[in-house]
Amino acid sequence: MAKSKNTAKVVSLANQKGGVGKTTTAINLASSLAKMGKKVLVVDSDPQGNASSGLGMVAKKKKDLLYHCYVDGVDAQKAICSVDGFKSLHVLPTNIDLIGVEVELMSAKKREKYLAALLQQVKKNYDFVLVDCPPSLGLLTINALTASDSIIIPLQCEYFALEGLSQLIRTIRLVKNTYNKGLYIEGLLLTMFDKRNNLTFHVANEVKSHFTKLVFDTVIPRNVRLSESPSYGKPIQQYDPSSSGARSYDMLGKEFLKKQKNKKGEA
Ligand SMILES: Nc1ncnc2c1ncn2[C@@H]1O[C@H](COP(=O)(O)OP(=O)(O)O)[C@@H](O)[C@H]1O
Ligand SMILES: [Mg+2]
Fold first, then answer.
1. Containing H/E element for 156?
2. Looking at the whole model, is its pTM more than 0.90?
């Protein structure tokens, strides 16, 4: 393992493009790891709150959310909820109020290190913390990258998949050089692969030829069950464990764990 045993490895799901599979991967990689007995926390760091609702959090009307941890100094532990049906899967939920963090912390000291400090209190309770980032490179994403050991970058198998990637990599380098020198890229993950569409083969091959070993072997197929499961507040492994989506996220979980033994990605 890259990390000592008593503290979680923190991994951000980041790409400033929306709709590439960050949230779907945060939810379903987390549940796959939890199913394999790992203790996992999902931090919903996108004001849209899709990871929270996708893990069944809407109904619970929580008083303390990630926003209150950032702005009111609430302990992360107080805001964390368990996910129904899992022994070791938790979520630090969010709602739209989280948008306020970008403004309220604008002139705060060490404003890029709030999430790292918050997670410090709870990391000992987990093997992995997955941070679902918003589709921007603003303060919430900078906090996520500063708090992380590594990054998974989901890329949708569509024509403009690589657009914006150089900007993301520049931001990662900036955070690495300024706030978090150990930060590295865990891997690029190809998502929404559609074997009936020639273009997706072309895009997948291009990404693999550019980034070679940095690309996860596991490719996530386009699967309608993956898009349905959030509306039931369930990860795919609960909603439809026999679907191609569930099988591929289980494969990703295994590949991810294997990578932890071999270490390491790149920055
Ligand atoms: N592999 C997939 N197959 C089918 N639909 C998917 C897949 N991955 C994501 N989706 C759907 O695509 C949309 C965008 O995915 P999402 O994970 O929310 O992206 P992001 O968090 O990067 O904005 C969502 O409606 C989601 O349900
Ligand atoms: Mg999202």
1. strand 150-156
2. yes
Residue scoring higher pLDDT (151 or 208): 151
Assess contact for 223 and 244: CB atoms under 8 A. yes
Q: For tokens 């503290």, name the residue.
A: 7
Q: Give the integer Cα–Cα distance in Å for 57 and 234.
A: 10
Q: How many beta carbons lie within 10 A of that of residue 238, not counting itself?
A: 18
What is the torsional sign of CA 114, 118, 124, 130? negative
Asked if 40 contacts 9 with a C-beta cutoff of 8 angstroms, the reply is: no
Ligand 1 neighbours, Cβ below 6 Å, are 18-24, 50, 135, 191-192, 220, 222-223, 226-227, 230, 245
Distance in angstroms (rounded) separating the CA atoms of residues 132 and 144: 8
Are 180 and 139 a contacting pair, CB within 8 Å?
no
Choosing from 227, 228, 243, 247 the residue with most ligand 1 atoms within 8 A of its CB, the one to mutate for a pocket test is: 227
- Tracing tokens 């109020």 back to the chain, one arrives at 97
66, 44 Cβ separation under 8 angstroms: yes
Whether residue 1 is predicted with pLDDT greater than 80 in this model: the reply is: no
Asked if 133 and 168 count as a contact pair (C-beta separation under 8 A), the reply is no
What is the CA 153 to chain-centroid distance, rounded? 9
- For the stretch 109-134, pLDDT in tens is 999 999 999 999 999 999 999 999 99
Nearest ligand to residue 153 Cα: 1
CA distance 205 to 23: 24
* Structural domains of the chain ordered from first start: 9-262 (3.40.50.300)
Nearest CA to ligand 1 atom 20: 19
